[in-house]
Amino acid sequence: MATIWRPAAKIASRSICSSRLSRAGSDCWAPGTPDTLATMAILGFALYRDPSRLDYARDLTEKAVAGYRNHYGEDHPDTLKAMNALAAVMSSQGHLGAARELSEEVLRRRRRTLGDDHPRTLMSMNNLATTLRDLGELGAARELHGEALRRRRRTLGDDHPDTLQSMHNLAVTLADLGELGAAKSARKRIGAARPAWRSTGD
């Protein structure tokens, strides 16, 4: 899955989040408060690449989603961010069907509330396309990665890190489809822009 919280923020927050959750029952950190819900969602996402912690990450993100839905509703930005985190955990667990359904819901809600060109909508588009590729639905993944790339190029420019991320993901999908020439062309464009990509620190 693509970025939900930036990598540097994930790394910096992981130990802090663990400490905060250990105090979640104290006067300072009551279960269900916005701070506790955010901590659960961030830590759950930070752990989604750790195979030994996936069950814990799933538990955290499911509780965060339930809490946000209960307190703020289905369309609240933090609810949708937590749902994105849960979809990432599901995907890492190999539950690709469930991850797809959740990613589709997040994308649908963000399209409706934020518009097609909003950065969070395009992030959701990218995440869903990656899940479709993992499911072997390469044609659908190509179409969605292509749409994300077109919109990011128009709104962010050719050399923005998010645009280059979409270009990379499309190139991988094209290679999986056997369209090696198109994939090579996209990778060459990414290579030319890579110094600017790295300079962002993401």
Question: Would you kindly provide a brief summary of this structure?
Answer:
This protein is an all-alpha fold. It has helices at residues 7-22, 34-46, 54-72, 77-92, 96-114, 119-134, 138-156, 161-176, 180-199. Helix 8 packs antiparallel against helix 9.
What key phrases describe this protein's structure?
disordered C terminus; single chain; globular; disordered N terminus; 202 residues; mainly alpha
Walk me through what this model shows:
With about 200 residues, the protein is mainly α. Helix 1 (about 5-20) packs across helix 2 (about 35-45). It has helices at about 5-20, 35-45, 55-70, 75-90, 95-115, 120-135, 140-155, 160-175, 180-200. The radius of gyration is 18 Å and the shape is globular. The model is unreliable at about 1-15, about 20-30 and about 195-200 (pLDDT under 50). The longest helix has 20 residues, at about 180-200. It starts with 6 loop residues before the first helix and ends with a helix.
Number of strands: 0
Strand content: under 5%
Mean model confidence by pLDDT: 84
Number of discrete helical segments: 9
The helix/strand class is mainly alpha
Question: How do the SSEs run, as a string of H and E?
Answer: HHHHHHHHH
* Main β-sheet description: none
Uncertain segments of ≥5 residues (pLDDT<50)? 2-16, 22-29, 197-202
Helix content: over 70%
Terminal CA distance: 15 Å
Outline, from the CA principal axes?
globular
Rg over alpha carbons: 18 Å
